[in-house]
Structure formats: C-alpha cells, structure tokens
Specification:
2 helices; about 0% strand; mainly alpha; rod-shaped
C-alpha cells in the first residue's frame, strides 16, 4: 500500500504544479469564428437571416392571393 500512496501523492503534486503554472494560451489571439468548430453554423444562420425578408414577402404575396380567392366567391 505505501507504493500506492506514494504514486497518489506524486500524482497530486503533478496536478497542483500543472494547475498553478502559467498558461501560454492567454497570449494568443482568439480563433476567428469561421475557423472555429461551429463556424459553419454561424454562417448558416447569417444566410438564413439574409433571406428572411424575401421569404416573408413571398408569404405576404401568397396570403393576399388566398384572401382574394376567398373573397371572390
């Protein structure tokens, strides 16, 4: 058992040392959104927002056409 305790103590010390160490990530610039793992989704949402007005205009045109057909009876 003493060997297990030593291994556990060594592991705990290594974890503490690595947790308290300086991180080189703080000096780097953030990854651009297009290069991020979810960057494709951001682009998809932008495309959807870009065509929203066209889609809504088409819906309004269809609503007017339906209303005119219903009123013609």
């Amino acid at each position: 058992m003493p060997a297990a305790h030593r291994s556990l103590a060594a592991l705990a010390v290594m974890l503490l040392v690595t947790a308290c160490g300086a991180s080189s990530d703080t000096e780097r610039e953030p990854t651009p959104v297009k290069d991020a793992p979810l960057g494709d989704m951001v682009g998809t949402m932008d495309k959807a927002r870009a065509v929203e007005n066209t889609t809504m205009q088409h819906k309004e045109d269809l609503d007017r056409a339906i209303d005119s057909q219903e009123n013609a009876r």
